[in-house]
Amino acid sequence: AAMSRKGRKLLVDSLTRSAKHFTKSEVECLIKLFDTLVAKASSQFAGAGFDRTVFRDTLYNAFGMTDDVVLDRVFSTFDRDNTGCITVEEWVEGLAVLLRGTLEEKMKYCFAIYDLNGDGYISKEEMFQMLKHSLLIQPADEEPDEGVKDLVEIALKKMASTYLFVPFLLQDYDHDGKLSFTDFEKAVRDENLLLEAFGPCLPDIK
């Protein structure tokens, strides 16, 4: 038990340094919450972390995040080693960016969410995939018809979404036919509302 307490203290100290936006007491609370979530998870990870289902349920209950595509992408950004399991380090450090991140950290986070294939660019198809979920409600297994596809294309080029973001202001500054992080960063620094241009992936401020 003494070793366990010592290990816990070392973990808290380490995470307080790495997740620099949280105080020591906040890190302690997040570790306790992590332990609660692990207890709910399947036993396949042997207590090392919790799975996608528990993660999605937690973000839904805590922050009202409901978009399946976004939740899967958020899980992937937290799960840095791609094991399908959120460890305590990934949990605390991920929340540090999600809840308290600087603009720079949040730009990198949002770009990673929208870059579905992880190639370092947001393509037109990736914009389409993200926007069709934030603009439309449709059966999960049904592809939108051509009229709906046309609507999404128009939304990309001409109009703000109902979520008060203005995708067409995100310009391809280097004219390579897709949105690089440099393009994204320049646009967001000019207009911070464009941070979530392709769908809400941060909790509401409240």
UniProtKB/TrEMBL annotation:
Keywords: Calcium, Metal-binding, Repeat. PROSITE patterns: EF_HAND_1, EF_HAND_2. Coiled coil: none annotated. GO terms for molecular function: calcium ion binding. It comes from the Eukaryota. The keyword Calcium applies. Residues 66-101, 102-137 form the EF-hand domain. It holds the Pfam family EF-hand_7. CDD domains: EFh. The keyword Repeat applies. This is EFCB1 protein. It comes from Agelaius phoeniceus (Red-winged blackbird). The gene is Efcab1.
